[in-house]
Specification:
Structural class: alpha+beta
Number of helices: 2
Radius of gyration: 16 Å
Strand order of the largest sheet: 3-4-8-7-6-5
CATH class: Mainly Beta
Distance between the termini: 56 Å
Order of helices and strands: HHEEEEEEEEE
Largest sheet: 6 strands, antiparallel
Helix content: 10-25%
Shape: globular
CATH architecture: Beta Complex
């Protein structure tokens, strides 16, 4: 194996290892909706549990919510709290549902150092479920991109808030 290929493969393996073992439960704060770990597992199923309770992520471009264009509200898959309006959804091309803002009093954030660079992690304010991350490369007026796992959300069609 050439040296450059070895270095590239090592870097990819290190990032994968870091992401795999960096999963963790949401920060220990007080939340309105709480369950035991076993109750969360049973209520969410394995994929949603991994994302909402362990900080995992779904594969890029795997969520049907990326193509959702109807008017409505995106709710937390863990507790049904209204999080995002369809009015703020846009196609960022990054492979996950993206929004330029959240509904009032819907989320909490915390620093995430699981990868090389610091990121800002987004959690549901009511149950503490991990939703995704915020980046500062979004559209006006906020210039934010809430990059959210589709499995962390349920879409409720209807009038958008």
């Amino acid at each position: 194996m050439k040296r450059s290929a070895f270095i590239s493969a090592s870097a990819v393996a290190a990032l994968g290892f870091s992401a795999l073992f960096a999963k963790r439960a949401p920060a220990s704060q007080s939340y309105e909706v709480t369950h035991t770990d076993a109750q969360w597992r049973a209520a969410l199923g394995p994929d949603r549990y991994d994302i909402l309770r362990q900080g995992g992520t779904e594969p890029a471009f795997s969520s049907p919510l990326i193509k959702e264009t109807r008017s409505g509200t995106y709710r937390c898959a863990g507790c049904s709290l209204a999080l995002f309006s369809s009015k703020t959804k846009y196609d960022s091309g990054d492979g996950w549902p993206s929004f330029w803002t959240v509904l009032p009093n819907a989320t909490r954030t915390q620093a995430d150092y699981a990868l090389i660079d610091e990121r800002t992690e987004v959690h549901c304010r009511r149950c503490g479920g991990h939703l995704g991350h915020i980046f500062d490369d979004g559209p006006a007026p906020t210039h934010l991109r809430y990059c959210i796992d589709g499995l962390a959300l349920h879409f409720a069609p209807g009038a958008a808030p």
